[in-house]
Amino acid sequence: MDWSQSLRLIAPEETLSIASLILLLVAAWGGDKAAKLISVLAVAALVAAGVLVAPALCGGAMGTETFAFYGQFKADAFASYAKVLIYISAAVSLVVAPKFFDRFNAMRAEYPVLVLLAAIGMGMMVSATNLITLYIGLEMNSLAAYVLAAFLRTDGRSAEAGLKYFVLGALASGILLYGMSLTYGFAGTTSFDGISASMAHGLSNGALFGLVFVFAGLAFKISAVPFHMWTPDVYEGAPTPVTTLFATAPKVAAMALTMRVAIEAFGDQAHAWQQIIVFAALASIVVGALGAIRQSNIKRLMAYSSINNVGFMLVGLAVATPQGISAMLFYLAIYVAMSVGGFAMILMLTDEHGNQVEDLSKMAGLSRTRPGLALGLAMIMFSLAGIPPMFGFWGKFLVFKAAVDGGMIALAALGFAASVIGAFYYLKVVKVMYFDEPADVVKGESDIWHKLILIGSCVVISPLGFFLTKWLGHLADTAAAALFTAL
Questions:
Q1: Taking phi first (over 0 means left), then psi (-120 to 50 degrees means alpha), and beta for anything else, what does residue 69 get?
Q2: Angle at CA of residue 470, ends 469 and 471, nearest 5°
């Protein structure tokens, strides 16, 4: 093994690791007074890590030259694509945090450090080519996430969210570990390439059980039905900047990890897991849509929206083709833009005392009292619903097109029909803002960073976003090709 090459390939993780350790010392010496400075430095570290992964993505890195540490880590274009989205999402969760936590006098120096540590774990997840590396990255992310969910110690909802996330996360980790153990027992290796080779000629019953348990554990991480039960409570209870992180970066990491496991480890047995993915996709679309209809809390509504969008993305994975994976990656990028904009908008919904306004009824008539905010949220809702000419339409179109081209016409038809249900609750939010009598509750001043993030997100998801189609499509195709490269 060439140690210099391995260390070069993990440069983004090294950068974030060194930065997190240094910032942890700064936090210990400077205390909470240094929290904002640490946040700025943490964002700089994420930007530096993004710059380091960009060449691999733009250059289409793939093949044996992307392997590090005896093939346990892969810094290819696919991993780089996911890491760019992860770092952007993590940086946004840091930028939006100070204004929110200052209201509770709870902006602690540990927050940016925990986000960096979670980002390191997520980077390992998307680059993992071995079950051991997979689990280390996943747990590193999860341990930081459990603390972040319960970060607002003065809020009982935050403590409850952290506890629920920890208990259910531990259960999911146990399921995943059991599946990994069965897979190792019947494949004789923890390497994705080795697992693929050992199962190329068929699955034994034991190996099939291992596959099912592995996908069950991963389904929890992406909050796919029927392992979605934690999502609404955690999204509602966690501090909103933390919810912004949960809805984006870990979602990208878990989806990318699921794609890599499905294609690289079990690619020759796609017929065995396609049924699981098809069920999870359709169930997530339907349950996410139906669950959101009765929600009166905007954060819980966004949680069910997240479940719903995961279902649409899984349609691309069910096809098990480079076109399907490319469509998923394209959709992920649009989803991140919609989600960060949506939660930046939620952070801007405050009353005259600076308290968060989460109840939909208190947003009534927002178009007449705060027309700019209403327009931004309406654009995000239309895009999440996939209504033209918003850019969110293109993400759904690509995954449905991949399903049709892959011969899964029934799946595409059912997914398209179920998307109509989702449009109902998105349009309900628009109806409340534009047609109900003004509640005149949202009166708080918005932070400049929240405004900039919302404006940037709205520009991306607007019809102007279609100018990115060729460039983003090329990057998604390059990343997907790296995942399917024969070694």
A1: left
A2: 95
Residue 83 makes CB contacts below 8 A (sequence gap 6+) with 12, 49, 50, 53, 122, 123, 126, 127
Averaged pLDDT, 114-119: 94
Cβ distance 346 to 302 under 8 Å?
yes
Structure tokens at 115: 């986000």
User: Nearest-CA neighbor of 75 among 17, 9, 124, 24?
Assistant: 9
Count Cα neighbours of 222 within 13 Å in the Cβ-side half-sphere: 29
CA distance 301 to 478: 34
Q: How confident is the model at residue 1 (pLDDT cuts 50, 70, 90)?
A: low
Mean pLDDT of 215-222: 90
What's the pLDDT score for residue 339? 92
Q: What percent of the chain has pLDDT over 70?
A: 99
Supply the pLDDT for residue 487. Answer: 43
Interval 39-62: pLDDT, tens: 999 999 999 999 999 998 888 778
Q: Which two tokens stand for residue 162?
A: 């952290």
What would you report as the CA-atom Rg of the chain, rounded to the nearest whole angstrom?
21
Q: In the chain, what percentage of residues exceed pLDDT 90?
A: 38
Query: C-alpha 446: how far from its chain's center?
Result: 25
CA distance 139 to 143: 6
Query: How far apart are alpha carbons 96 and 93 in whole angstroms?
Result: 6
pLDDT, greater one: 424 or 463: 463
Taking residue 297's Cβ as centre, other Cβ atoms within 10 Å add up to: 14
* Residue type at 202 in one-letter notation: G
Conformation bin of residue 88: beta by default, left when phi > 0, alpha when psi is -120 to 50: alpha
Write down the mean pLDDT value for the chain. Answer: 88
Q: Residues 52-71, buried b or exposed e (16+ Cβ, 10 A)?
A: bbeebbeebbbeeebbbbeb
Distance CA 94, CA 147 (A): 15
Span 173-198, average pLDDT: 89
What single string gives the DSSP state of each residue in 194-246? HHHHHTTT---HHHHHHHHHHHHHHHHHTT-TTS-TTHHHHHHHS-HHHHHHH
User: Where would I find the H helices in 96-204?
Assistant: 97-102, 110-127, 131-149, 156-187, 192-198
Helix (H, G, I), strand (E, B) or coil at 67: strand
Asked whether the beta carbons of 93 and 220 are under 8 A apart, the reply is: no
d(CA 481, CA 322): 6
Q: Model confidence over 127-144: pLDDT tens digits?
A: 999 999 999 999 999 999
